[in-house]
Amino acid sequence: MKRILHPGLLALSALPTLLVACGGSDSALPQLTAASAGTLLSCTDLASKISFPNTTITAANAIAAGTLTVAGTPVPAHCQITGKMNPRVSAVDGNNYAIGFEMRLPYAWNGRFFYQGNGGTDGSVVTATGGVNGGSGPTNALNMGFAVISSDAGHSTPGANFGIDPQARLDYGYQAAATLTPMAKSAIKTAYGKGPDRSYFGGCSNGGRHTMVAATREPEEYDGYLVGDPGFRLPLAATANIAGAQAYATVATSSADLSTGFTTTERALVSNAVLAKCDALDGATDGMVQNTAACQAAFNLDRDVPTCSGARDGSCLSAAQKTVVAKLFSGATNSSGSKFYSNWPFDAGLATAGWASWKFTSPAQRDAGAVGLIWQVPPEAASTFNGTTFSLTGSIDDMLAKIAATNSTYTESALSFMLPVNPSNLSRLRDRGAKMMVYHGTSDPIFSSNDTTTWYESLRAANGGNASNFARYYPVPGMNHCSGGPTADQFDMLTPLVNWVEKGQAPDSVVANARGPGNAVAVNADVPSSWSPSRSRPLCAYPKVATYNGSGDVESAASFSCK
């Protein structure tokens, strides 16, 4: 069975419309040609026609138009291919493993391929539709005519127990995508008589991590990379979240409920204090903080939020709470005080249920298993593992040491197989004309947007202070993890990415809509009732900030400019 060798690693400490920069062409870099369309002439016989080493096609099903509906829109007729690659029995845990996948091939094909990076710890083959943003997007890649693949990343059971098998760890980290890519392109060639003219890779959360990993490990395989809220330092972010749980436990009023350490009312108090200092910095008092960097200088937790002189009643934070919150927002540290993960911006989206879920529920339910069973060397004993006990009583120092460790069974550390390789150096991607678009919610509670900002600044520095001719970063004000929060989070970034890759139209901004009551795709309950339910805002390419023009409808993106 073929295995992929690991190179060196250097880790870092209504439909929206597109606004396109004038000029549009990046003349200093190669201009890739546009994809040409094709037609799928048959479907069910592809089960016997598709042939690739170590690959079994289990089914080829003709899916009629309208059978699948995504984003409120019936998906056109297409062919669903299911299969698996590299089946094996683990010599370590005795379980069966394979890389499971499905491909959806439209009859009316636009000549493009989209690799769908999925979230969490993978473990299931999610419907291969290809998201254009983190959640509740207005369309999808399959609707646009892309051939799309989705996979379980090498294990068929959700959860963390697969981490006992060393190869399953590597497949989850980076090898499944590298293994599936040539197979998928070969299958497309069989189905259409030609391979894809242009290939794109995208996802949010762990899917964003998958995309950044592919950009550094497979820069020749894909022409466009759509990166959402990337957990590109996922083992460190998860360990930081566990450290946060331990800190919130010290101020919680109930040992069974971490959220009592920083209640919804108290989080709303802080968000409102942030808005009081920062809302108007972009020229509009509208419940959104566009200028995140200026806000961090303007807001001071100790000064701007009342300190309780008596019992906590929601109108203040205790001195102990302020100490905990300030320390966590400044970045998680080990026992010697060294920071091992990013700091966080104070923002307007702290009071949501989504924010609370990641901070108070995820440490025991998601992070503990991932750290203890997928990333530690050696892993914890799966049969006796208790996520709550691990997250609340485990040593952060030990976790950090073990996710960086290797042994004769687990020959790559989590800081190797999970992280992109030297992510500040995207020269191979850049020099062949490929492009990258990145977005990140500034109220993301699990992966800090400041971490992404720091990465992008390092990318700029590696490119003479400006990487905008091949990579652009779009902070999403108020958005929680991939979606939700008091925000405008419904947008299409795949269309502008294609236009940039294939037409040279560099996107200065992308318009995003709020999902208030009546939204055709999905309502975001976090949208304030005082907003227009269809509020729109430009998502500006960093370091520009959406700024109110001084006149015009404050609910419309047309009244804002990127400055």
Account of the 3D structure:
It is built from 16 helices and 18 strands. It is 30% helix and 17% strand. With 563 residues, it is α/β, with parallel strands linked by helices. It has 2 domains: 18-233 and 420-562, Rossmann fold (3-Layer(aba) Sandwich); 236-416, no CATH class. 53% of the residues are buried.
Supply the CATH architecture of the largest domain. 3-Layer(aba) Sandwich
The Cα radius of gyration reads 23 Å
Count of beta strands: 18
Average pLDDT, all residues: 94
Instruction: Report strand order across the widest sheet.
Output: 3-6-7-10-9-11-12-13-14
Task: Please give the domain count.
Answer: 2
Distance from N terminus to C terminus (CA atoms, Å) equals 53 Å
Largest sheet: 9 strands, mixed
Shape: globular
CATH topology of the largest domain: Rossmann fold
Outline the low-pLDDT stretches.
1-25
Helix content: 25-40%
**Percentage of residues in DSSP E strands:** 15-25%
What do we call the CATH homologous superfamily of the largest domain? Alpha/Beta hydrolase fold, catalytic domain
CATH class of the largest domain: Alpha Beta
User: What structural class do helix, strand and pairing data support?
Assistant: alpha/beta
Alpha plus pi helix count: 16
